[in-house]
Specification:
Number of strands: 3
Shape: globular
Largest sheet: 3 strands, mixed
Order of helices and strands: HHEHEEHHHHH
Radius of gyration: 15 Å
Strand order of the largest sheet: 1-3-2
Number of domains: 1
Distance between the termini: 20 Å
Structural class: mainly alpha
Length: about 180
């Protein structure tokens, strides 16, 4: 079960967690509104990009577009042509579209949750990879996905998580499989 979930997470180009959040629920009382989160995202993205540069060979990348998307749209984006009755029961926190340099963030994104922020970092790594043309020099997509996971894990460790693998629902063996996957 863990293996199939992780493979689906890799296909989604964005890690997953918890239950779906309806787009209309995002602004209900007690939840962060998209407007308040957007104000924090600019600073967070800059800090995360600086962290990526400090922990990799990447240089500053051009700005990335960040936009909100509900769960159904994220699932359709990450699992195109997948029958809705077979759609994995996972929450996609964020996804990167390399053709538009856009990160689509789930409407339930919590700017105070380091796990949610780590998903944003993961997608920013993909943005840096594309801008550095690493996608043209990598042997396969799994290599790029593995690097994004490893940087995400390192960031979570720096945030004080003693077992970041458990937080993401993966283990070292599964990560090695993702890195070697030729798809």
């Amino acid at each position: 079960m863990t293996m199939s979930l992780v493979v689906m997470m890799a296909l989604a180009a964005g890690p997953c967690a918890s239950a779906p959040v309806d787009a209309q629920e995002a602004d209900r009382p007690g939840r962060f509104s998209q407007r308040s989160v957007a104000a924090q995202l600019e600073t967070t993205i800059s800090e995360l990009s600086d962290w990526i540069i400090d922990h990799s060979d990447y240089r500053k990348a051009p700005n990335v577009i960040v936009t909100w998307e509900g769960q159904l749209s994220l699932q359709a984006r990450c699992f195109p042509n997948f029958p809705s009755d077979l759609m994995p029961a996972i929450l996609i926190k964020a996804a990167y579209d390399s053709s538009t340099s856009t990160i689509y963030v789930d409407t339930g994104f919590d700017p105070g949750d380091p796990i949610d922020i780590s998903y944003l970092l993961h997608e920013l790594v993909h943005h840096h990879q594309l801008r550095a043309a690493k996608n043209t020099t990598a042997r396969h997509r799994g290599e790029l996905e593995g690097e994004a996971y490893r940087l995400q894990l390192a960031w979570l460790s720096e945030q004080g998580y003693t077992d970041p693998y458990a937080e993401l629902g993966i283990d070292e063996k599964t990560l090695l499989i993702i890195e070697r996957c030729p798809r």
